[in-house]
């Protein structure tokens, strides 16, 4: 198990490194960072001075190395725009994004898993059809559109929920639903498929042959096995959700990391965008790493292997 | 002789499938007494597993099972609710499945799974259940039984798992044990060991056993009574000696000619064959299902087929009283 | 001496070893697994060599090496005295063809039977489409299938019919050697006998040479002229069929023979006298691989690997028959319980 | 709302740093005017200069300005205001190494000297006619001790000034809370009335409106014309509109920087472009409010912005004819760039398409477009310029026609005229030379000036406010109804 | 010449051909049929856009801005009214189908080619190739798609081509994953071994033995990724960094309509709803195809 963790960690680091290279080089292809930094009202001299000041005239490899070694020690550079350390900036904004992500995935799991289980127990029942409908609709629903409709209905027409901001829990309800609904269909389908497969497996027949009550069969024998892949998927979805929170944050004016990313792209705030891509990737990497470890722990076959 | 432990009369199983109704099992009868071993033999798809699952009450909800009579020790199984069936299963009758690799839950230890049935059906503590599990593991020939309890199924080889399955089936000292092809997935050497174990244990514990297999060799060595199944029907039943030494139904005879028998069949010579393929059981099925492949078939085979009982306990269903078409010259 | 050994071998294996490296778990360190261990065999024209052994002992791996689907780690395969690796694989394909175990997986479900059967001809650019069509009809007729199956798909056929198609495909290029890897183990007995008969007939008709892999000794006895018994990658005994079944030497061969259940009512289930645990092929027991299960194991069996000892009609690898090396040098070990 | 004496307002853009020397956005100016004071103040209504932190100022010579400071003023943190603060602030911002974001605002100053505790001299690098304008605009006074310690970052997070409002909370870029400065000095800005200003950044206009409906905002601004119109039609809100100094224009590659054969090097083509666009329609249908059609390359109120130059009426037929004369009877295809106001840019492009100039429309980030224009130029692009709210033609025309990297015409004569106008201290001479330059720009159609922008201010009926034309929210002049 | 015993019963064919079975299942699958019909209709609309659209979707008329749709009192000249530049809304919707479908099809094609090549190579060759591909998949999955796509589009400028290529280059992961596992599965089948034993070359095996057996999975992924690409384009356009105006993209139309959403909700409702319907149809079809082809994989 330790060896598994070590190897898995090595792979995670390698992935992270590759992503860092890609994000760094990708954004360096963008327009003149000095001009971006100088802003709309700057003169040519301003731009030139800034180019020197920030070292944009050095070779790219040197800049990458600087950036990477900084990143290792938690120094992600200084935002061109805010003139503040990116790390602090992101840490601030991440709280909201993380909160949103946690709420979203919780919402998704709380709706998807029970629905999936019931749908698998009663295939073709009303609930199964409802679950299928919800998941098909969820996959097709453009989340920006869904969010806008929620605002119109619940904030404007009914006046129940605040349309933007983060001050109270009520502010998080609509964003959570929009974000969670994005992850729900996949989790629901996997739960349903996993349960269906497990329920038709030989060891479920064995459990029934022992005279185990249906609840024991379902929850002790079946769900335990069906849930293992769901854990991985939830981790993956959580990673995607954080990266995909841009849309939701921009609709509900949540000043989270996703919104910061969007604005930073528009402002050509390179250090922030680079750092955000890296941070979002790291989240994905960490989540999948944890889920793999959790999986290995949940699944005795992997625990021994 | 005592009353039969299990009586089955007119068991019929219908499964709705895409193209209609699959008449998978059609009106089969058999009895089983305590301590007796019944072997159901037949080709793949002939309905053996369905029959056993029907007895256990483990057919899925979609599948329609009916019987004129199906009693276990006086308990009417056709009318029993799911709760009553649950109380029987794992306690008074238990089952061993074909695939030892997949029949154990990968997520729980051997110990958990062994003790489950006992904890469910008997008022015993965990410790007592563990002790019983260890005792049974030793009985099925597993050494270091205590340490095995903490292991997971994937850590055991196929042979060992099948032994665990057997131990699991025996936890509550059932009166009836149903083994559905318990050795098909195993190597020949392991097969012999497992079969020996099963035979010894049933004898020792005075259990009745239904053993399902497609291997005539196994049947001959293990069975007290044999039931030959073809396309959902029992075409011939009788004691092992009767069926193997004096097979009456053309299908039974054909099967026996098909297998090479060291010492009996001439090496390299042509084996007997049964031509053709099994008929589809979807839709209306009448007459003898074997008639399309039978070398004794006559026009009457399309009608109802009578049952003959040349010896007490030895019965077969064929239009010909002897199993041979009298019109054909017999060798 | 059987006449098989008098004629020159069409196919020969010399010291063939195949080692896989297998990973355990997702990230375990790869470990070597010797699936086939220093095997030497030869097939004479027209003979049927039966290869028996437990699951996982390396039978299929050996077959794959013969077919050129796997390269041996060591040793060489000779066809007509020529090393195979040097020669063209396509040339090899014309002479050696396989029949696999699972008729449900050995036919491409997306292709009609005519395409499947004519594939070898098309790959080797033999004939034009008309002549190929004719060849397919002929070979289908030979294996007992009517021409009208040509346009059907495998999913429309029964197991027996499919296996006939597989045989037709193997034979359409008139190979000399057919490797049958458990060709009947997925079939019902009534179909099995049809296929066995067909294989026998074809052999007689076309003078084919078979390597016949099976774990069913009764079938092997019926069909094979010579038998090789495999255990954990090694051929532990090799003999003419008659000899083997009358006087088997290796304790493992005996156990195998003992486990054959013939349909004789009343005989009961025999005692194989074998320990039951199949050893882990990644960490095979030292010395004689079989010793932990052997009812006649001696102390040095656990330390010294036995050498092949020639017998009148083959060889055996067992200390019991090695007159020079360690016979009766120690007391018999007790039969081992599974670990 | 009025009930809790808190005005809730929204910013559209995330403000990078509250420190006014380190941001360059409107929002920054709004906060600057609330938190800090300049030495001088220009009355937005009369354009008259009044003393603020300085009570009096005199030119010692062309490059030396002496100012008398107001006494008894304290910063929000209790630090008293005196000459040291002015000297420190001026010397800090004038030093290029300190990286003040908009160098133009400060780089005309060389340094400052203390004469006594309440008298300072500001030394200029060279004569600079707009000095007083700048001192009453972007140059505000910081507390020397605090600023020395906190620096721009600290100032951005915890701003300290002398202004009518003090800052009680800053969440960078997102949220600012201001409170009335109870002992605000007797400034021409007037005394603040509203107790608390709560500003949130809400990027999306739509969300702002939703919040306005919801009662969680009292005031929004920079609201697009269409929404403002709809909101005006509802009776809960007041919609005020004021012009701004920003103008929109097309710049054409007359110098042939994108290629000597570029059609825009031909005068007739440029004139055709000018005739092709219905600027009246743009103003009346899209910009609305107090926007006006303009024909000169500057904002009309700016000093020197002559209005009587050649103007081109909307006449697509004439445009086509001109194109044909220039050798493009079937029109031509060209790249067309813009960086903001997508819908205006789109509307313009469709006018061009209508006369046969097929445009490949590219919307780029400001920096990307700027880089493109600096490096290789662009055939035609839609640009806007706000002149830093400086009421002088030098803030716009001289920026773009003196061979800078964004000069697409490169006309030596114009440059010479502008040089004279920019450095002269004689207003009449300046006016004359600006007129010459502007006349030639119009004749040559180097630019196609189109319209001035306007800003909408939307607030609830509880709020009373009259916006000013310089596009700055003045909290000090807001009252509860 | 027949070596085998004549056995007339062997001629009996048990089942219908795979084609017949497929047809039967397709016509028995309601979701698939609905999806296919709706998709076909939308495709038709896209193809016939010039005939169907009442106006030029790019033609502006500043005098006719923001006309209401007929159901809100507008006239039939502009059945769905006009947008903020006075362009006919219905015509833009109709042309929007072209943009969405084009993006879906081309992006899925690009990513399909990349992902399939990688997945099949990884599955078939295993070993180091597999390790590299798996690693690349991991890297790709770790990159936040929306963020990276936004950044790249922002850098390169958002034109239809750029958006398509960026999406195509970003969405290959599912293709690679699915194709890898299906290839792995098929590679182990005995008919592949048989083809190799016959002497088939590797390309031939890949093309004629492996591809036909994984192509149904491929089609399912194609539909999923088409839907994915269409939604992503809409999201990018919504965020202002996707397809650029005046191209009529539905995402862009939602984005443009958003500002007036509180006053004229139909500006947002209509393009969003039609986007939803398109993606729903594609997904229904994909799900249906999976249902319909899955049983065949098993046998
Ligand atoms: N749940 C089910 N749905 C549809 N058909 C079924 C189902 N279960 C069994 N069948 C069909 O019923 C027939 C009998 O099945 P059964 O499993 O009893 O055969 P068997 O004799 O046990 O065969 P085997 O030796 O292969 O296990 C087969 O044709 C099978 O395909
Ligand atoms: N590609 C491979 N990679 C790693 N190990 C393999 C591979 N192929 C086979 N093996 C291992 O080699 C050993 C021999 O396998 P092989 O398939 O030859 O056995 P077999 O005798 O044919 O068994 P069976 O009777 O089950 O077909 C087994 O332990 C198997 O796990
Ligand atoms: Mg069965
Ligand atoms: Mg094998």
Automatic annotation (TrEMBL), chain A:
<keyword id="KW-0813">Transport</keyword>
<dbReference type="GO" id="GO:0055085">
    <property type="term" value="P:transmembrane transport"/>
</dbReference>
<dbReference type="InterPro" id="IPR000515">
    <property type="entry name" value="MetI-like"/>
</dbReference>
<feature type="transmembrane region" description="Helical">
    <location>
        <begin position="130"/>
        <end position="156"/>
    </location>
</feature>
<feature type="transmembrane region" description="Helical">
    <location>
        <begin position="96"/>
        <end position="118"/>
    </location>
</feature>
<keyword id="KW-1133">Transmembrane helix</keyword>
<dbReference type="Pfam" id="PF19300">
    <property type="entry name" value="BPD_transp_1_N"/>
</dbReference>
<feature type="domain" description="ABC transmembrane type-1">
    <location>
        <begin position="94"/>
        <end position="291"/>
    </location>
</feature>
<keyword id="KW-1003">Cell membrane</keyword>
<dbReference type="GO" id="GO:0005886">
    <property type="term" value="C:plasma membrane"/>
</dbReference>
<feature type="transmembrane region" description="Helical">
    <location>
        <begin position="168"/>
        <end position="187"/>
    </location>
</feature>
<keyword id="KW-0472">Membrane</keyword>
UniProtKB/TrEMBL annotation, chain B:
<feature type="region of interest" description="Disordered">
    <location>
        <begin position="309"/>
        <end position="331"/>
    </location>
</feature>
<dbReference type="GO" id="GO:0005886">
    <property type="term" value="C:plasma membrane"/>
</dbReference>
<feature type="compositionally biased region" description="Basic and acidic residues">
    <location>
        <begin position="309"/>
        <end position="323"/>
    </location>
</feature>
<dbReference type="GO" id="GO:0015833">
    <property type="term" value="P:peptide transport"/>
</dbReference>
<feature type="domain" description="ABC transporter">
    <location>
        <begin position="8"/>
        <end position="256"/>
    </location>
</feature>
<dbReference type="GO" id="GO:0005524">
    <property type="term" value="F:ATP binding"/>
</dbReference>
<keyword id="KW-0813">Transport</keyword>
<dbReference type="InterPro" id="IPR050388">
    <property type="entry name" value="ABC_Ni/Peptide_Import"/>
</dbReference>
<protein>
    <submittedName>
        <fullName>ABC transporter ATP-binding protein</fullName>
    </submittedName>
</protein>
<dbReference type="InterPro" id="IPR003593">
    <property type="entry name" value="AAA+_ATPase"/>
</dbReference>
<dbReference type="InterPro" id="IPR013563">
    <property type="entry name" value="Oligopep_ABC_C"/>
</dbReference>
<dbReference type="Pfam" id="PF08352">
    <property type="entry name" value="oligo_HPY"/>
</dbReference>
From TrEMBL, chain C:
<dbReference type="InterPro" id="IPR050319">
    <property type="entry name" value="ABC_transp_ATP-bind"/>
</dbReference>
<dbReference type="GO" id="GO:0016887">
    <property type="term" value="F:ATP hydrolysis activity"/>
</dbReference>
<dbReference type="InterPro" id="IPR017871">
    <property type="entry name" value="ABC_transporter-like_CS"/>
</dbReference>
<dbReference type="InterPro" id="IPR003593">
    <property type="entry name" value="AAA+_ATPase"/>
</dbReference>
<protein>
    <submittedName>
        <fullName>ATP-binding cassette domain-containing protein</fullName>
    </submittedName>
</protein>
<dbReference type="InterPro" id="IPR027417">
    <property type="entry name" value="P-loop_NTPase"/>
</dbReference>
<comment type="similarity">
    <text>Belongs to the ABC transporter superfamily.</text>
</comment>
<keyword id="KW-0547">Nucleotide-binding</keyword>
<keyword id="KW-0813">Transport</keyword>
<dbReference type="Pfam" id="PF00005">
    <property type="entry name" value="ABC_tran"/>
</dbReference>
<dbReference type="GO" id="GO:0055085">
    <property type="term" value="P:transmembrane transport"/>
</dbReference>
<dbReference type="GO" id="GO:0005886">
    <property type="term" value="C:plasma membrane"/>
</dbReference>
Automatic annotation (TrEMBL), chain E:
<dbReference type="InterPro" id="IPR050366">
    <property type="entry name" value="BP-dependent_transpt_permease"/>
</dbReference>
<feature type="transmembrane region" description="Helical">
    <location>
        <begin position="263"/>
        <end position="282"/>
    </location>
</feature>
<feature type="transmembrane region" description="Helical">
    <location>
        <begin position="214"/>
        <end position="243"/>
    </location>
</feature>
<feature type="domain" description="ABC transmembrane type-1">
    <location>
        <begin position="97"/>
        <end position="286"/>
    </location>
</feature>
<dbReference type="InterPro" id="IPR000515">
    <property type="entry name" value="MetI-like"/>
</dbReference>
<dbReference type="Pfam" id="PF00528">
    <property type="entry name" value="BPD_transp_1"/>
</dbReference>
<dbReference type="GO" id="GO:0005886">
    <property type="term" value="C:plasma membrane"/>
</dbReference>
<dbReference type="InterPro" id="IPR035906">
    <property type="entry name" value="MetI-like_sf"/>
</dbReference>
<keyword id="KW-1133">Transmembrane helix</keyword>
<comment type="similarity">
    <text>Belongs to the binding-protein-dependent transport system permease family.</text>
</comment>
<dbReference type="GO" id="GO:0055085">
    <property type="term" value="P:transmembrane transport"/>
</dbReference>
<feature type="transmembrane region" description="Helical">
    <location>
        <begin position="99"/>
        <end position="125"/>
    </location>
</feature>
């Amino acid at each position: 198990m330790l060896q598994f963790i070590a190897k898995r960690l090595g792979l995670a680091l390698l992935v992270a490194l590759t992503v860092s290279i890609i994000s760094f080089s990708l954004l360096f292809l963008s327009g003149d960072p000095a001009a971006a930094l100088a802003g709309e009202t700057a003169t040519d001299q301003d731009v030139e001075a800034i180019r020197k000041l920030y070292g944009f005239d050095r070779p790219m490899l040197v800049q990458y190395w600087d950036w990477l070694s900084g990143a290792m020690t938690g120094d992600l550079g200084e935002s061109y725009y805010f003139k503040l350390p990116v790390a602090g900036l992101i840490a601030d904004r991440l709280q909201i994004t993380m909160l949103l992500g946690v709420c979203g995935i919780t919402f998704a799991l709380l709706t998807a898993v029970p629905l999936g289980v019931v749908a698998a127990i009663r295939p073709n029942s009303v609930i199964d059809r409802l679950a299928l409908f919800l998941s098909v609709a969820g996959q097709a629903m453009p989340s920006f559109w869904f969010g806008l409709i929620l605002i119109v209905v619940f904030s404007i027409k009914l006046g129940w929920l605040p349309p933007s901001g983060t001050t109270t829990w009520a502010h998080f309800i609509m964003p959570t639903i929009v974000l969670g609904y994005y992850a729900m269909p996949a989790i629901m389908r996997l739960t349903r498929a996993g349960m269906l497969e497990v329920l038709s497996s030989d060891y479920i027949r064995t459990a029934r042959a022992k005279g185990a009550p249906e609840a024991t069969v379902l929850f002790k024998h079946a769900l335990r096995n069906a849930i293992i892949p769901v854990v991985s998927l939830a981790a993956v979805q959580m990673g995607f959700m954080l990266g995909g929170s841009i849309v939701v944050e921009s609709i509900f004016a949540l000043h989270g990391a996703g919104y910061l990313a969007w604005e930073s792209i528009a402002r050509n705030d390179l250090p922030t965008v680079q750092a955000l891509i890296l941070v979002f990737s790291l989240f994905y990497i960490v989540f999948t790493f944890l889920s793999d470890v959790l999986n290995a722990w949940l699944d005795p076959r992997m625990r021994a292997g | 002789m005592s009353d039969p432990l299990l009586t089955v009369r007119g068991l019929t199983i219908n499964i709705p499938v895409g193209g209609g109704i699959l008449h998978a099992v059609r009106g089969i009868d058999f009895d089983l007494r305590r301590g007796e071993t019944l072997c159901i033999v037949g080709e793949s798809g002939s309905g053996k597993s369905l029959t056993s699952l029907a007895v256990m009450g483990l057919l899925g909800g979609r599948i329609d099972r009916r019987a004129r009579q199906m009693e276990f020790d006086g308990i009417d199984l056709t009318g029993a609710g799911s709760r009553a069936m649950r109380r029987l299963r794992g306690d008074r009758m238990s089952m061993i499945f074909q695939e030892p690799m997949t029949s154990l839950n990968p997520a729980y230890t051997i110990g958990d799974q062994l003790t489950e049935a006992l904890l469910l059906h008997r008022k015993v503590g965990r410790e007592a259940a563990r002790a019983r599990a260890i005792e049974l593991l030793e009985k099925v020939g597993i050494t270091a039984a205590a340490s095995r309890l903490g292991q997971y199924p994937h850590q055991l080889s196929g042979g060992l798992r099948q032994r665990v399955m057997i131990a699991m089936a025996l936890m509550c000292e059932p009166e009836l044990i149903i083994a559905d092809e318990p050795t098909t997935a195993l190597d020949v050497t392991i097969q012999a060991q497992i079969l020996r174990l099963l035979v010894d244990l049933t004898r020792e514990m005075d259990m009745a056993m239904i053993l399902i297999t497609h291997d005539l060799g196994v049947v001959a060595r293990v069975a007290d009574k044999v039931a030959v199944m073809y396309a959902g029907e029992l075409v011939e039943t009788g004691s092992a000696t009767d069926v193997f030494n004096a097979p009456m139904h053309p299908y039974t005879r054909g099967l026996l000619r098909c297998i090479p028998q060291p010492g009996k069949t001439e090496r390299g010579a042509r084996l007997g064959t049964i031509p053709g393929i099994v008929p589809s059981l979807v839709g209306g099925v009448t007459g003898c299902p074997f008639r399309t492949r039978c070398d004794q078939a006559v026009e009457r085979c399309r009608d109802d087929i009578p049952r003959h009982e040349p010896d007490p306990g030895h019965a077969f269903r064929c239009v010909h009283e002897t199993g041979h078409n009298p019109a054909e010259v017999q060798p | 001496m059987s006449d098989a050994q008098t004629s020159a071998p069409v196919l020969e294996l010399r010291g063939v070893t195949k080692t896989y490296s297998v990973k355990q778990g997702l990230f375990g360190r790869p470990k070597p697994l010797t699936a086939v261990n220093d095997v030497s065999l030869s097939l004479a024209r027209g003979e049927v060599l039966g290869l028996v052994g437990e699951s996982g002992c390396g039978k299929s791996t050996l077959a794959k090496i013969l077919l050129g689907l796997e390269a041996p780690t060591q040793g060489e395969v000779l066809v007509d005295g020529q090393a195979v690796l040097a020669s063209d694989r396509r040339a090899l394909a014309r002479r050696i063809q396989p029949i696999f175990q699972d008729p449900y997986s050995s036919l491409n479900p997306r292709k009609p039977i005519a395409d499947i059967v004519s594939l070898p001809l098309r790959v080797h650019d033999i004939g034009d489409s008309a002549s190929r069509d004719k060849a397919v009809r002929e070979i289908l007729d030979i294996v007992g299938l009517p021409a009208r199956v040509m346009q059907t798909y495998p999913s429309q056929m029964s197991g027996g019919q499919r296996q006939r198609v597989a045989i037709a495909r193997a034979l359409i290029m008139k190979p000399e050697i057919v490797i049958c890897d458990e060709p009947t183990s997925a079939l019902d007995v009534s179909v099995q006998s049809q296929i066995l008969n067909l294989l026998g007939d074809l052999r007689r008709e076309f003078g084919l040479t078979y390597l016949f892999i099976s774990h069913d000794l009764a079938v092997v006895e019926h069909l094979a002229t010579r038998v090789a018994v495999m255990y954990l990658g090694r051929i532990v005994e090799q003999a003419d069929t008659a000899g083997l079944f009358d006087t088997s030497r290796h304790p493992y061969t005996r156990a195998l023979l003992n486990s054959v259940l013939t349909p004789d009512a009343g005989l009961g289930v025999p005692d194989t006298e074998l320990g039951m645990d199949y050893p882990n092929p990644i960490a095979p027991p030292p010395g004689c691989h079989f010793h932990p299960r052997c009812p006649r194991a001696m102390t040095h069996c656990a330390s010294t690997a036995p050498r092949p000892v020639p017998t009148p009609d083959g060889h055996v690898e067992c200390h019991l028959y090695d007159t020079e090396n360690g016979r009766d040098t120690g007391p018999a070990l007790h039969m081992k319980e599974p670990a | 709302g009025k009930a809790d004496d808190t005005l809730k307002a929204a910013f559209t853009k995330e403000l990078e740093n509250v420190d006014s020397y380190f941001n360059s956005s409107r929002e920054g100016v709004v906060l600057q005017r609330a938190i800090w004071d300049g030495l001088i103040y220009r009355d937005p209504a009369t354009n008259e200069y009044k003393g603020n932190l300085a009570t009096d100022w005199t030119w010692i010579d062309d490059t030396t300005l002496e100012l008398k400071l107001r006494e008894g003023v304290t910063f929000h943190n209790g630090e008293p205001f005196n000459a040291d603060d002015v000297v420190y602030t001026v010397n800090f911002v004038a030093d290029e190494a300190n990286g003040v974001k908009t160098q133009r605002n400060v780089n005309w100053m060389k340094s400052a000297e203390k004469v006594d505790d309440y008298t300072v001299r500001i030394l200029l690098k060279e004569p600079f006619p707009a000095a007083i304008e700048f001192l009453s605009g972007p140059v505000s006074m910081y507390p020397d001790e605090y600023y020395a310690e906190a620096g721009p970052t600290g100032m951005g997070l915890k701003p300290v000034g002398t202004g009518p409002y003090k800052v009680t909370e800053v969440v960078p870029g997102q949220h600012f809370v201001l409170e009335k400065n109870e002992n605000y000095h007797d400034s021409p800005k007037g005394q603040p009335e509203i107790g608390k200003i709560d500003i949130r950044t809400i990027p999306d206009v739509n969300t702002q409106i939703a919040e306005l409906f919801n009662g969680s905002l009292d005031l929004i601004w920079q609201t697009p014309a269409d929404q403002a119109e709809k909101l005006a039609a509802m009776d809960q809100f007041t919609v005020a509109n004021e012009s701004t100094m920003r103008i929109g224009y097309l710049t054409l590659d007359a110098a042939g920087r994108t290629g000597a054969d570029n059609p825009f090097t031909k005068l007739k083509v440029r004139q055709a472009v000018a005739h092709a666009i219905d600027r009246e329609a743009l103003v009346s249908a899209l910009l609305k409010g107090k926007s006006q059609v303009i024909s000169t390359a500057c904002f009309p109120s700016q000093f020197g912005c002559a209005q009587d130059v050649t103007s081109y009426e909307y006449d697509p037929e004439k445009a086509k004819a001109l194109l044909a004369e220039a050798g493009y009877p079937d029109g031509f295809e060209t790249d067309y760039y813009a960086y903001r106001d997508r819908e205006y840019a789109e509307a313009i492009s469709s006018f061009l398409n209508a006369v046969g100039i097929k445009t490949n429309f590219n919307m780029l980030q400001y920096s990307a477009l700027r880089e493109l224009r600096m490096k290789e130029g662009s055939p035609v692009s839609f640009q806007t310029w706000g002149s830093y709210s400086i009421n002088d033609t030098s803030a716009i025309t001289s920026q773009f026609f003196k061979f800078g990297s964004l000069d697409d015409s490169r006309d030596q004569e114009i440059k010479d005229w502008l040089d004279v106008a920019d450095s002269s201290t004689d207003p009449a001479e300046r006016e004359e030379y600006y007129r010459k330059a502007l006349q030639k720009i119009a004749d040559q159609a180097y630019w196609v000036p189109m319209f001035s922008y306007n800003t909408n201010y939307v607030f609830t009926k509880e709020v009373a406010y009259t916006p000013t034309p310089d596009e700055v929210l003045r909290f000090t002049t807001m009252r509860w109804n | 010449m027949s070596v085998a015993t004549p056995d007339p019963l062997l001629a009996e064919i048990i089942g219908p051909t795979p084609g017949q079975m497929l047809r039967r299942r397709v016509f028995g699958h309601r979701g698939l049929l609905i999806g296919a019909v709706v998709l076909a209709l939308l495709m038709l609309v896209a193809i016939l856009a010039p005939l169907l659209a009442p106006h030029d979707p790019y033609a502006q008329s500043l005098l006719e801005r923001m006309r209401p749709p007929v159901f809100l009192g507008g006239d039939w000249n502009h059945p769905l009214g006009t947008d903020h530049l006075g362009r006919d809304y219905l015509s833009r919707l109709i042309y929007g189908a072209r943009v969405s479908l084009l993006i879906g099809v081309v992006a899925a094609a690009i990513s399909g080619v990349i992902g399939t090549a990688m997945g099949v190579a990884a599955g078939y060759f295993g070993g180091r190739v597999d390790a590299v591909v798996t690693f690349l998949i991991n890297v790709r999955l770790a990159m936040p798609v929306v963020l990276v796509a936004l950044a790249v589009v922002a850098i390169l400028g958002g034109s239809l081509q750029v958006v398509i290529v960026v999406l195509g280059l970003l969405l290959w992961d599912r293709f690679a994953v699915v194709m890898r596992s299906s290839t792995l599965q098929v590679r182990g089948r005995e008919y592949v071994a048989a083809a190799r034993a016959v002497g088939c070359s590797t390309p031939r095996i890949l093309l004629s033995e492996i591809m036909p057996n994984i192509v149904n999975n491929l089609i399912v992924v194609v539909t999923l990724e088409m839907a994915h690409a269409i939604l992503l384009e809409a999201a990018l356009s919504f965020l202002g960094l996707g397809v650029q105006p005046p191209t009529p993209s539905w995402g862009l139309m939602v984005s443009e309509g958003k500002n007036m959403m509180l006053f004229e909700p139909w500006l947002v409702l209509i393009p969003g709803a039609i986007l939803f319907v398109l993606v729903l149809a594609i997904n229904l079809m994909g799900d249906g195809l999976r249902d319909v082809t899955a049983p065949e994989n098993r046998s």
